């Protein structure tokens, strides 16, 4: 069931590609969806964590990827909401600072 839902979400993201190419505002939300899918995959809901850990070389790498993918999904979701609300997108230190945290975890 989990694999079926993951495949359905992946297909929906792929079907959105033509609108992403045409409409610039939808690019950030599409990137958020793709990184969210990657984060869901690495969480171990689709493929068991033991299998993912064996391919990546250990639990620490998997945890690092989980943090990076989740952070990127939140970052692009924030960007998408700002563009949708027509708020001027102005990046500050607080928007970029969380990107240093996955590197610090390692």
Report on the architecture of this protein.
The protein has a domain of 61 residues. Helix content is 75%, strand content 0%. The chain is built from seven helices and no strands. Helix 1 packs antiparallel against helix 3 and helix 3 runs antiparallel to helix 5. The model has no long low-confidence stretch (mean pLDDT 77). Keywords: Membrane, Plasmid, Transmembrane, Transmembrane helix.
**Content of β-strand:** under 5%
| Total DSSP helices | 7
Main sheet properties: none
Specify Rg, calculated over alpha carbons. Answer: 16 Å
> So what's the overall shape?
flat
Low-confidence stretches: none
Mean pLDDT: 77
Based on DSSP secondary structure assignment, what is the total number of beta strands?
0
Key features?
mainly alpha; 75% helix; single chain; 7 helices; 106 residues
Brief digest:
Keywords: Membrane, Plasmid, Transmembrane, Transmembrane helix. This protein has about 110 residues and is mainly alpha-helical. Helices cover about 75% and strands about 0% of the residues.
């Amino acid at each position: 069931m989990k694999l079926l839902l993951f495949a359905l979400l992946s297909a929906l993201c792929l079907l959105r590609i033509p609108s992403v190419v045409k409409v610039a505002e939808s690019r950030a939300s599409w990137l958020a969806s793709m990184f969210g899918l990657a984060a869901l995959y690495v969480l171990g809901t689709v493929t068991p964590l033991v299998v993912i850990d064996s391919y990546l070389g250990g639990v620490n790498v998997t945890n690092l990827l989980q943090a990076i993918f989740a952070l990127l999904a939140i970052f692009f979701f924030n960007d998408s909401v700002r563009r949708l609300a027509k708020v001027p997108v102005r990046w500050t230190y607080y928007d970029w600072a969380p990107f240093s945290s996955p590197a610090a975890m390692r």
